Known about the structure:
The chain is α/β, with parallel strands linked by helices. It contains 7 helices and 7 strands.
Amino acid sequence: MSLTPPVLPLDPAPLRDRVVAITGGAQGIGRGIAQAVLGAGGRVAIGDLDRDAGAACLAEWDVGDRAWFFPLDVAREASVRSFFAKACTRLGGLDGLVNNAGPADPHVDDLATLPLSQWRRFIDAHLTGAFLCCKYALPALRERHGAIVTIASSRVLQSEPHTEPYAAAKGGLVALTHAMAISEGPRVRANAIGPGWIATEAWRRPASRRRPALSRRDHAQHPAGRVGTPEDIAALAVYLLSPASGFVTGQHIVVDGGMTRKMQYA
């Protein structure tokens, strides 16, 4: 037997025939991940509150039974239970889950006057929603040694004023991720992605779609030289969902063009 490590070809379709459920999958980063999964040979079940956006995805992708849309409110347990039951029945099981749903705008009122309802809106949609999705996805994921990818944020490392509920929810997602990695390993891997500034305007429902209005200064703030796109997050998600990342679990990987490594002096 030779001990020379062989040169192996990279798999051009690393998610071939794998089934991935993506919450908040009809717009923005979620849609970007869904399209990347399809491009990697997989099948997707997208869940979203926006039925029109979901219908637009299916029409524009035109991939037949490789993609399904089901209405989903991750803050309601009955909705989550129904989504995963339908997804597993229609697609024959589950190999991956992407927790992406939740309010995108992080800004709220001053913490001293913040209504409890605003706090709960972020915690319920981001953190409790991810818990519920994992709860109902795990039995299927365990059967097929699947993977969970949760969309956290670079805001778990840095903040703007008046973003406490969003930061707390996203920080909770990172902790939930490494806790699940320990509890579920080696049957299920769990990782989180922390996006920075990602321009999603071109990835909305058709009626709201537009080109991002970005200045040279916006791009120049990033050591990578540009603002991010959904494809930047999707490429990492595909890797973390695929067998190629079989030795990666419990991690929070920041994808922000280098912003969190840049010294900020006025």
